[in-house]
Design goal:
EC 2.3.1.31, acyltransferase, Rossmann fold, transferase, cytoplasm, about 300 residues, about 25% strand, alpha/beta, Class_I_gatase-like, 12 strands
C-alpha cells in the first residue's frame, strides 16, 4: 500500500524510480478507509535527503499513511530553501490542534551543545509536551532520542571521547517486544554521534527498557513499556553513502575525522560501502507502524485525550 504525501513533493520522483508506491492527495481522496496520520519533525540540515530516507521506510507496509512534515519556526534552516519549507512543511502553530497516530523526531548535528543552548529548545519542549496528548506513539532518532529522554525522563547525555561513526553489530535483548518481531539475534546499524546515553540510567527508569544494544556502540533502542515512545540512538534510515558524505563534510570543516568504522571495505575509501542495515531498517519501521501504532491507536484520534499521557 502507498504512502500519501503532497502532490509536488520532490521526494516522490526519487521514490517512484525505486518502484515505491507513493500516492498523491488527489488519488488518495477516493479511498474510503482511515489512513494513519504520521507527523515527521525533520531537524536534519538536508531535509530533502531525510524525507526520502524516512518515506522509503514508511512505505514498507500495507497501510495507507498520510504524512505531514514539521519544521522549527524558531530556527533558520540554512540548507533547505524557504520555498521548500513553505510548500511542504508546517509550523507547530499550524498542527498543534491536530492529532496524530505517530510522530517521528529526527536527529540533528548539534549533540555537542547542551540542550538548553539549542536555539529551538523552547519550541521543541512545547512539541514534546503536546505529543503526550496528541500523538499515540513517537519514534525518536539519535539526537531526537537523547532530547526526548532528557525531556520526558530527565536522563542526560554524556560526551564520548571521540565521534562514534560506523556500522556496528547489535544484540536484540528483548525479542518478545512486538517492535522487534522477526529480527535476528544480531543485526547491523549505523551510528554517527558525539554523545551517548548510559544504560544504567535507563535501567533505573521504571517505565523504560533497553531493547537493543551494541558491544561497540552502546545503546541502540530503548522502549517505553506501554509502546507509546521509542528512542533509537543510531540511524537505520541512512543511505549507503550517508556516512561517507558526513565524513567528507567533516574533512572540509577541518575536523580531521577518523574513517567510519566497519564501513569502507578494507578501510579503502575508493571501495563502495556494503549496505548491511536496510533490511533491519524496513522491519523496525514497519513493526512500529503495525504493532505500536496501527494495532492500538484509537480510530477517532480525538480519543487520545482520554487515552492518557505516555
Amino acid at each position: 500500500m502507498p504512502i500519501r504525501v503532497p502532490k509536488e513533493l520532490p521526494a516522490i520522483k526519487v521514490l517512484e524510480k525505486e518502484k515505491i508506491f507513493v500516492m498523491d492527495e488527489d488519488r488518495a481522496m477516493h479511498q474510503d478507509i482511515r489512513p494513519l496520520e504520521i507527523l515527521i519533525l525533520n531537524l536534519m540540515p538536508k531535509k530533502d535527503e531525510t524525507e526520502v530516507q524516512l518515506l522509503r521506510l514508511l512505505s514498507n507496509t500495507p497501510l495507507q499513511i498520510n504524512v505531514d512534515f514539521l519544521h522549527m519556526s524558531s530556527h533558520d534552516a540554512k540548507n533547505t530553501s524557504i520555498d521548500h519549507l513553505k510548500r511542504f512543511y508546517h509550523q507547530f502553530k499550524e498542527v498543534k490542534d491536530k492529532f496524530y497516530d505517530g510522530l517521528i523526531i529526527t536527529g540533528a548535528p548539534i549533540e555537542q551543545l547542551r540542550f538548553e543552548e539549542v536555539d529551538y529548545w523552547e519550541e521543541l519542549q512545547e512539541i514534546f509536551k503536546w505529543s503526550k496528548t496528541h500523538v499515540f506513539s513517537t519514534f525518536h532518532i539519535c539526537w531526537g532520542a537523547q532530547a526526548g529522554l532528557y525531556y520526558h525522563h530527565k536522563i542526560n547525555k554524556y560526551s564520548l571521547d571521540q565521534k562514534l561513526s560506523g556500522i556496528f553489530a547489535h544484540d536484540v535483548l528483548t525479542p518478545t517486544w512486538s517492535i522487534l518481531k522477526g529480527f535476528d539475534d544480531v543485526f547491523f546499524a549505523p551510528h554517527s554521534r558525539y554523545t551517548g546515553v548510559k544504560k544504567s540510567d535507563i535501567d533505573q527508569t521504571e517505565s523504560l527498557e533497553v531493547l537493543v544494544e551494541s558491544e561497540e556502540a552502546g545503546l541502540f533502542l530503548v522502549g517505553n513499556k506501554n509502546n507509546r515512545a521509542f528512542y533509537a540512538m543510531g540511524h537505520l534510515e541512512y543511505d549507503r553513502e550517508t556516512l561517507q558524505q558526513e565524513f567528507e563534510r567533516d574533512q572540509h570543516k577541518g575536523i580531521e575525522p577518523k574513517l567510519p568504522k566497519n564501513y569502507f571495505p578494507n578501510n579503502n575509501r575508493s571501495e563502495v560501502p556494503q549496505l548491511r542495515w536496510h533490511m533491519a531498517a524496513s522491519l523496525l519501521f514497519s513493526n512500529w507502524l503495525n504493532y505500536a501504532v496501527y494495532q492500538n491507536t484509537p480510530y477517532d484520534l480525538t480519543d487520545l485525550l482520554e487515552v492518557g499521557k505516555y
